[in-house]
Amino acid sequence: MRTLATDGFVEGIEGTGDQCIQGTQFHPEMLRLENTRFDAIFARFVQEAGKR
Question: CA 23, 6, 11 angle in degrees (round to 5)?
Fold first, then answer.
């Protein structure tokens, strides 16, 4: 899955298989101070890291 910005550039990717793949072309660590929906990116990362 990929997320496009209004200018057509890919801003984020997420794998759909068994392996965790996430990537962003923005700074969710800065945006999470303004909008808690970005906390989900970090929660998923911590969850997947705990499996390893």
Answer: 5
Q: Are 9 and 25 in contact (CB under 8 A)?
A: yes
User: Residue holding tokens 């911590």?
Assistant: 46
SS3 13: strand
Q: pTM, whole model, 2 decimals?
A: 0.65
- pLDDT of amino acid 6: 85
44: containing domain? 2-50
29-38 long-range contacts, Cβ below 8 Å, gap at least 24? none
| Overall number of domains in the chain | 1
